[in-house]
Design a protein that fits this description.
The structure is a single chain. The protein is α/β, with parallel strands linked by helices. It contains 11 helices and 30 strands. Helix 6 runs parallel beside helix 9, helix 7 runs parallel beside helix 8 and helix 9 crosses helix 10. The longest helix has 17 residues. The N and C termini lie far apart (about 95 Å). InterPro entries: Peptidase_S8/S53_dom, Peptidase_S8/S53_dom_sf, Peptidase_S8_Ser-AS, Peptidase_S8_subtilisin-like, Peptidase_S8_subtilisin-rel. Keywords: Hydrolase, Protease, Serine protease. Belongs to the peptidase S8 family. This is Peptidase S8/S53 domain-containing protein.
Length: about 525
C-alpha cells in the first residue's frame, strides 16, 4: 500500500508545471490585448506559466509596480494599466520570473489621441453593409460634416481608392480607445482600422509652440548652405512637391498647382496660411522647397494641401485625406513627377498613414512617390517621459519594424524611399546637429533647420527653426534628382539611395553620432 501511495505522489508531481522550479525555463513571445492602448487603459498578457509572487513586468525597461495576475489553465494572465508618463509608440514589454522570460511589444497611444476610430473602407463595401456590421458590434458610423457615412479618398487604385469612415461606440459600457480598436478590427476583418487623433506640425508638436534656435547660431541662407550650384541646368522642372501643412500663400515666386483644404470644408482655401497669426508654416516650407529666389528647386511646382489649422493641429482624418489628394494628383498628372513633403508628426503611429505611404512608396514602381518627412524636435525633452521616443511618420523609416500585430503578415516593416530629415544649425563657420533634432535609426540625413531664411505669407523675410524647415530642402533636392533621371526613372527607394550616396557630406558635424546625423549633411556639390 505504501508503494502505491508513493507512486501516486510521483505521478502527480510529474504532471505539475516545473517551469518555475526544477523544469526547463520558459521563453515565449506575448501579444498584449489590446495591442494598442492609451494612458490609463487596462492591458492583458497571457503567460505560458503559472505566475508567482516574484514576477516582474517592465515596459521599455521601466518596472510596472501595479500588476495583478490571474490563473489561466496551465498559465496565467497578467493585467496592468499603461502609465501616463510614457511616450507614445511601440514600447518593449518584458515579463520575467526566475529563469522564465516572455517578451513582446505594446503600442502606447500617446499625445492627441481621441475617443473615436477611423476606418478605410474598400470601394466594394457599401455604407449600408458597413453600418450593419457596426451595429452588430455595438458601434456606429459618425456622419461627416456634410452628413456622409463615409468620405471618398479620391484615388484610382490602392488604399486611396477606398473611403474614410469615422466610428464610435453605440452602446454598452464605455470602451477605452484601444479596446474600441480591437472591437472594430474584429467586426471589419480585412479593413484598415486606426484611432482618430491629432498630429502636430513641426515645430508645433503638442509639447512646444515654437522651436527656439540654439544660442550662438547664425542665420542660414539655405541655397548657399547646401552648396546649390546656381548655374545648374536642373531646377526641378517637370516635378511637383506636395506640401501637406497649414496651407501655402499665393506668392508670385511660387508655381502653385490647384490644391485642397481639409480643415475648413465650408469655405476651403488651401492658399491661406494663418499659422501663428500669419507667421506661416506651410508657406515657409514651400518657399524653401521651390521658391524662385529661396528654393532648392525653383522650377518645381507646389501642390498646397491644407490639413493643419492655424494652431498647428492636424486632424488625422485631414492628414489621411491630404496624402490621398497628393496620390490622386500623381495618378492624374503622371508627367509631373511628385514628391510628398510631411513636416508634421506625432509620437503615436497611424497604421492608415503607414499603409498609404507604403502604397505610394513601394507598390507603384517608377510611378511611386518619394516621401520626405521631418524628424521631429523633441530630443531635448526626451527625458520628460519614459520609454523610447518616436516621431511618426519619420520613424516608419527605422530598421526594426513597428508592428505588434498578432498576424505576422501584417508586420509594419520599414518603409523604403522615405527620407527622414534632421536639422543642423550654423555655429560660427561649422554646422552642428541641432540639440532639439530627434535621434534614431530612422534618421537618413540632416539639413539646415535653425534660423533658416524663408518667407512669411505676407511675402516678408523671416527666420524659421525646426526640422520642418530642413525637410523641404531635401524635398527640393529630390525634385532635382527626379528631373535629372527623367530618361532613366527611379523608384522611390532608388531615388533615396541615389540622393544619400551622392548628395550628402558625412565629414564635419562635430562628433554627432550616426543616429543624429544619418548619412550626413545635404550637400549638392556633386549633384546634377
Amino acid at each position: 500500500m505504501r508503494w502505491i501511495v508513493v507512486w501516486a505522489v510521483l505521478v502527480a508531481l510529474a504532471a505539475c508545471d516545473f517551469s518555475r522550479s526544477g523544469g526547463e525555463p520558459v521563453s515565449a513571445t506575448v501579444y498584449p490585448t489590446p495591442r494598442r492602448a492609451t494612458w490609463g487603459e487596462e492591458v492583458r498578457l497571457n503567460l505560458p506559466w503559472r505566475a508567482g509572487s516574484s514576477l516582474r513586468l517592465s515596459l521599455a525597461g521601466e518596472t510596472i509596480s501595479e500588476v495583478r495576475t490571474e490563473a489561466l489553465g496551465t498559465g496565467s494572465a497578467v493585467v496592468f494599466r499603461v502609465p501616463s508618463d510614457f511616450w507614445g509608440g511601440p514600447q518593449a514589454l518584458e515579463v520575467t520570473e526566475g529563469e522564465n522570460r516572455a517578451t513582446g511589444s505594446l503600442t502606447v497611444l500617446g499625445e492627441g489621441v481621441g475617443t473615436e476610430a477611423l476606418l478605410v473602407v474598400r470601394p466594394e463595401v457599401s455604407d449600408d453593409s458597413l453600418s450593419q456590421k457596426m451595429a452588430s458590434a455595438g458601434l456606429r458610423l459618425v456622419p461627416s460634416a456634410k452628413g456622409e457615412s463615409s468620405v471618398p479618398l479620391g484615388g484610382a487604385s490602392g488604399p486611396c481608392a477606398g473611403r474614410l469612415a469615422q466610428v464610435a461606440q453605440a452602446s454598452g459600457a464605455p470602451l477605452a480607445i484601444g479596446a474600441l480598436l480591437e472591437r472594430l478590427e474584429a467586426a471589419t476583418a480585412g479593413l484598415v482600422v486606426d484611432l482618430d487623433g491629432i498630429v502636430g506640425i513641426d515645430p508645433l508638436t503638442g509639447y512646444d509652440t515654437d522651436q527656439s534656435p540654439s544660442p550662438g547660431t547664425s542665420p542660414i541662407d539655405a541655397r548657399q548652405a547646401i552648396r546649390r550650384n546656381p548655374s545648374s541646368n536642373f531646377t526641378g522642372a517637370g516635378t511637383t512637391i506636395a506640401i501637406v501643412d497649414t496651407g501655402v500663400a499665393s506668392l508670385a515666386s511660387l508655381n502653385l498647382r490647384p490644391g485642397a483644404d481639409f480643415t475648413n470644408l465650408e469655405t476651403p482655401n488651401p492658399n491661406q496660411d494663418e499659422y501663428q497669426d500669419g507667421l506661416g508654416h506651410g508657406t515657409a516650407a514651400a518657399v524653401l522647397a521651390a521658391d524662385a529666389a529661396y528654393g532648392v528647386a525653383p522650377a518645381a511646382g507646389i501642390l498646397p494641401i491644407k490639413s493643419c489649422d492655424k494652431n498647428g493641429k492636424c486632424a488625422l482624418a485631414a492628414v489621411i485625406r491630404g496624402v490621398c489628394y497628393a496620390v490622386a494628383y500623381a495618378e492624374q498628372n503622371k508627367n509631373q513627377k511628385l514628391i510628398l513633403n510631411l513636416s508634421l508628426g506625432s509620437d503615436t503611429p497611424s497604421e492608415i498613414v503607414y499603409i498609404l505611404l507604403k502604397d505610394a512608396l513601394m507598390k507603384r514602381g517608377v510611378n511611386g512617390i518619394p516621401v520626405v518627412v521631418a524628424a521631429g524636435n523633441q530630443w531635448a525633452i526626451r527625458t520628460s517621459k519614459k520609454g523610447t521616443l518616436h516621431h511618426f511618420p519619420a520613424s516608419f523609416g527605422g530598421n526594426r519594424g513597428l508592428s505588434v500585430s498578432r498576424d505576422p503578415a501584417r508586420r509594419m516593416t520599414p518603409l523604403k524611399g522615405l527620407l527622414s530629415v534632421g536639422a543642423v544649425g550654423l555655429f560660427g563657420s561649422d554646422y552642428r546637429v541641432s540639440s532639439f533634432s530627434n535621434n534614431g535609426d530612422f534618421i537618413d540625413l540632416v539639413a539646415p533647420g535653425e534660423r533658416v531664411r524663408s518667407l512669411r505669407p505676407n511675402n516678408t523675410q523671416a527666420e524659421f527653426t525646426g526640422t520642418s524647415f530642413a525637410a523641404p530642402l531635401v524635398a527640393g533636392a529630390a525634385a532635382i534628382v527626379r528631373q535629372a533621371s527623367v530618361f532613366t526613372p527611379l523608384t522611390p527607394e532608388a531615388l533615396e539611395l541615389t540622393l544619400l550616396a551622392n548628395l550628402t557630406e558625412s565629414s564635419g558635424l562635430g562628433d554627432a553620432p550616426v543616429e543624429a546625423r544619418g548619412q550626413g549633411l545635404l550637400d549638392m556639390t556633386r549633384g546634377p
